[in-house]
């Protein structure tokens, strides 16, 4: 009788294991849901936004270089768009890596760390691009420009002989130059500001996903267990 009961128990346990395999572990399901958003894996939305915004900023920066050859690199922030495009590519690489909880693989940890650091770098670059564009735009609103020898010469204060003169080469028409440059600077400010917010949200989500769990209970659990055992003794 004991053998029959033991065999029946083993059969029941085997059946339960099969049912668990077919149904799936609820913990793994919860872990998969924790790193998804609207049915998509975490970095997909941020990577797509970063790629679209990075390409827009880069194209607009190169268009600004065509207005005048004397524009400085800080005034044509294609560099911030290139950085954000690289960040989005790292996000797509992270999508190709199979997710494992608690970053059990070295590759997953390295890619996530790279994505976090590059997103922070993209945030800083976009903030700098916004600052440079805003400064140049404010100067453009106070300029007094004249066309001299196929170049546009602008001054902040015409009454002051020592006032700094800004020269825009390859610009035959100052009016069209100022209008186009003001428009491009405004677009750069808006696009870089949105990109900075996207990079900031990506950093915040990654930080929250990594550090939102506090392990206080794990540290104090052995102490409570030993105290309970001592009380029982």
From TrEMBL:
Top-rank taxon, per record: Eukaryota
A Pfam family matched in the record: CD20
Keyword Transmembrane: yes
Record localization: Membrane
Ranges where the record places region Disordered: 1-30
Record field: transmembrane: 51-72, 78-101, 113-134, 185-207
Recorded topology in the membrane: Multi-pass membrane protein
Keywords from the named record: Membrane, Transmembrane, Transmembrane helix
A single cellular component GO annotation: sarcolemma
InterPro entries: CD20-like, Sarcospan
Keyword Transmembrane: yes
Name by which UniProt lists this protein: SSPN protein
Gene: Sspn
């Amino acid at each position: 009788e004991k053998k029959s009961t033991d065999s029946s128990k083993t059969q029941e346990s085997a059946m339960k294991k099969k049912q668990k395999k077919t149904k799936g572990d609820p913990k793994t399901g919860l872990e998969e849901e924790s790193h998804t958003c609207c049915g998509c894996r975490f970095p997909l939305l941020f990577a797509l936004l970063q790629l679209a915004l990075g390409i827009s900023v880069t194209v607009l920066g190169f268009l600004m270089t065509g207005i005048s050859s004397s524009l400085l690199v800080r005034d044509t922030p294609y560099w911030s768009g290139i950085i954000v495009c690289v960040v989005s590519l790292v996000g797509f690489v992270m999508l190709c890596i199979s997710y494992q909880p608690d970053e059990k693989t070295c590759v997953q940890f390295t890619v996530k760390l790279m994505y976090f650091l590059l997103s922070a770098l993209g945030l800083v670059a976009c903030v700098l691009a916004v600052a440079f564009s805003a400064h140049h735009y404010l100067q453009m609103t106070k300029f007094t420009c004249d066309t001299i020898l196929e170049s546009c010469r602008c001054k902040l204060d015409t009454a002051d002989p020592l006032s700094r003169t800004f020269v825009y080469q390859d610009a035959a028409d100052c009016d069209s130059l100022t209008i186009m440059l003001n428009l491009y600077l405004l677009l750069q400010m808006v696009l870089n500001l949105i990109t900075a917010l996207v990079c900031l949200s990506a950093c915040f989500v990654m930080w929250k996903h990594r550090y939102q769990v506090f392990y206080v209970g794990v540290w104090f659990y052995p102490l409570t267990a030993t105290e309970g055992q001592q009380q029982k003794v």
